[in-house]
Design brief:
163 residues; mainly alpha; Bromodomain-like; two-stranded antiparallel sheet; 2% strand
Length: 163
């Protein structure tokens, strides 16, 4: 397939739908398996939502492709870092000192505030070291790390393609 022929708006629509779809799947898994999301899980959910909004902005204003691509890439790299940190916490829980075990950091305070405003979407009740849901021997944090890496790759391709 020649990616140069795919309209820029279609790329951004795919990004937005993919991110919003991931949040919907995460909420459904949370309800179905009675999962208790941790502050880092909720922060990743927030990043997916914000990247989805960036996708909508790119869809509405495709002339700013490089701005939206760069912003989405920075957010996805941040999400990758958070998911990688949570994956490390799950691999070495005895070394983890944050996310429910110490004074709240900035992410935890933001998540707490969002959880009070919109509990159905942002309430964090779990611990970051818990591996409550595993599929193909990968935790939700591991999968999220892979998805954020995929978003970065997707946005690199979008940024490199010709208008």
């Amino acid at each position: 397939m020649d990616f140069a022929k795919v309209p820029t708006r279609a790329w951004f629509a795919t990004l937005a739908l993919g991110c919003f779809g991931l949040v919907a799947v995460g909420l459904e898994l949370q309800a179905l398996f009675r999962l208790a999301p941790c502050p880092l899980c909720i922060f990743q959910r927030l990043l997916y939502l914000v990247i989805g909004v960036v996708g909508l902005l790119g869809f509405a204003l495709p002339a700013g492709r490089m701005l939206w691509t760069g912003l989405g890439g920075i957010l996805a790299l941040g999400g990758f870092s958070v998911a990688a940190y949570q994956s490390w916490m799950q691999a070495f829980p005895e070394l983890a000192t944050e996310c429910g075990y110490a004074d709240p950091n900035a992410i935890e305070r933001l998540v707490d505030w969002l959880g009070m405003q919109y509990p159905g979407l942002f309430l964090a009740t779990g611990f970051c070291t818990s591996r409550d849901w595993v599929f193909l021997d990968l935790s939700m944090a591991n999968w999220s790390m892979l998805v954020f890496a995929g978003i970065v790759g997707f946005l690199v391709l979008l940024g490199l393609r010709r208008s």
